[in-house]
Each structure stands twice: as structure tokens, then as C-alpha cells.
Model the fold of this input.
Amino acid sequence: MEICSSIIVLDPKDNSREILKSYLEELGFSDKIKLFADYNEGIREIKENPENLIVFIDITDCSEESFAAIEEVKLFTSKIVITSSDYSTNSIVRAMRLGAKEFLPKPVLKEDLQRILSIFLQHGEEQEDTASKIITIYSNKGGIGKTTIAVNLALELAKTTKDKVALVDLNLQLGDISTFLNLNPAFDVSYVIKNLIDKRDETLLKAFEKYKNTSMYVLADPSYIEQSESITPQQITELFKTLKRVFPYIVVDMSSNIDPNSLKILDLSDWIMFTTIVNIPAIRNSQRCLNLFKSRRYPSDKVKIIINRYMENDEIKIEDIETTLGEKIYWKVPNNYFSIMDSINKGVTVSEINSNSNIANSFRDLASKVSDDIVEMAITKYRI
Done:
């Protein structure tokens, strides 16, 4: 059990402060509770005693003061819970982007409060219910551009959310992420699987290559093919458990093959961003793959279809593709051959080539949509 020195409640409403205090006392935290009706007073207390804090911040009125409090508190703790009797998505998404980790709806229920405290105070497998998401970029046909999408989405997620994002190359025999980003990492996924699964979070992070001055961390594919051949589905399961302990977002690039390891990656992913292009063979291949997903009984919201190299004047229209596949298109990445090839050849992301290009804007907007949709899914259960 992790030590918690103080639980700070910032809430201008007397009644809700007292309700939260009452539940916290019943849960055994009587000597740790500090209540503040004034945000500034609470922040002063946090600055004076910043160690091992859990902070509850009410945003019911959506005041700028409450949002500013989240930004300040994030400098001292990542364990921030927002409370609100207004369940509108926009305010909750904004608070999450500023640094809040959990949402507690009002009127507060004791079991919801207990669940959140257990997430913050427990280690290991008991943290599996956290908001950490595995987002796998997949295509059942090579040459579609999934590595480009994985690399650029991961970086833009890191920029958008300000959270740690793991970019993991699980194309175990022919991975390209290190090449795309001009990296020469000291460690790879094989080393992590064999040596670091049970290690402390700080040790695990050292095996990742941090990309420049961002919060994106890269884990490369195995250096030798024989290393990849020894990796098992069970090891992939343990790898994902370990990564979810450290990273709020895990973006995975994988091979186009269907084998036991690939199926395990797909099964364990929270989202599969299935990538295709607009031509008849690719669409037919997509139909086969979607049928595979259905046979494995994946939830309907698990698979997101991405159209890569999209051109407005294509003969085949998006509506035709949606009708053929029986699924809505989640995102369209515009065709910009020269920017993509320039970024690959220089070993950087497209935003570093031209941050104002149509494709850089597309990846930026995609990251915003992904992070917003993940937050919205997390709060759906609280809606009336």
C-alpha cells in the first residue's frame, strides 16, 4: 500500500465538502483530510506540504479559477480527482487535459470514492482499472502506412495530453520505428520482456528511448530475428500489464501477419485503429479482417477504421466504403506523399517537417479526437 500523507479537498460548497469528509472518515482517512472552500488557500497548503497528496477539485461551476487550480496542483501531484454535478463532456475533457486523472460525479457515492482511492493507493495488477489505453495501429496488408500513423499519432498524443506515451514496436521481425525516428536505442522489447517485467517503474523507463524533449518514449523491436522468435503470447500479456502500470497511453505498431503473437496483441488492445487505403483490393482485404474481428467477438467500439492517403477526388467515396464494410470511418489521413517521404528520410515526424501542413494538422486533430473520445468513454457510465 502506497503512503498518502494528505487528502486535500478544494470545493466552495459546504455540503459537498462535508459529504466527502464523512465518506473519507468512514474509509479510515480521518487524520489525513484537509478541506478548503477557497482554491487559493488550498493551493498554498499544497505548496507548503507537497508530498504524497491526493487532491479533489470541484469544477461544477466551470470557473476559470477551478481549471487554473488543476494546472497548479499538477506541479505537485498527478493524483487529481475532479468532482462535478455537471456531467457535460467539454468541461471534463478540459479538466483531464489540464492534468486531472479521475472524475467523481456528484452526488458522490461511497463506492465510487473507494474505487478511486484504491486506484491511487494500490500497486501492480490492481491498477488494471486505470485509464491506461493500448491503441494498436494495424493493417492486414503491408505498405498501407501504419508505422507512419503510429509514430505521428504517438507524438501528437504526447503533445496534446502532456502525459507519458509509450510507442512500442511489436512488428517483431521487421520493425521500422527506430528508422522512422532516427534512433539507435540501447534496449529493445526483447530485453524488457526478459529482464524488466518485475522491476520498478524508474528502471523500466530507462529501457525506453525518450524522443527529444517530449513525453513520448520509444521501445524498439528486437535487434535480431532469432530474439523475436522466442517471444510468446504470455510474455506479451506480461509486457502490456507492465506498460499499463507506467504509461497512460500505449501506441503499438505491429506486423500484418496473423499468428499467435499478433492475435494476442489485438485481443489485449483497448482500441484497434485498423488502417486501409481507398482501392478495391484494400477494401476487400479490410472486409476479411473485420470478419476476423467479429469472429473474435470484439466490442463494436474497439475497432476504429482509418483511411490513409485519402484524396477528396477519389472515385470511391467514403460513403461507398462505409456501406461495403458496414462500419463508419473514424478518421481520414490526407495524402501528402512529399511530406511523408521527407519526414521518413530525415528521421523525424511530419510536424517537424512542416507543422502547418495538412497532414501535420490531421495527426494533431486525430490525437485530440482520440484523447477526447477516451475521456468521454470513461465518463459515459456517469451520465443520467
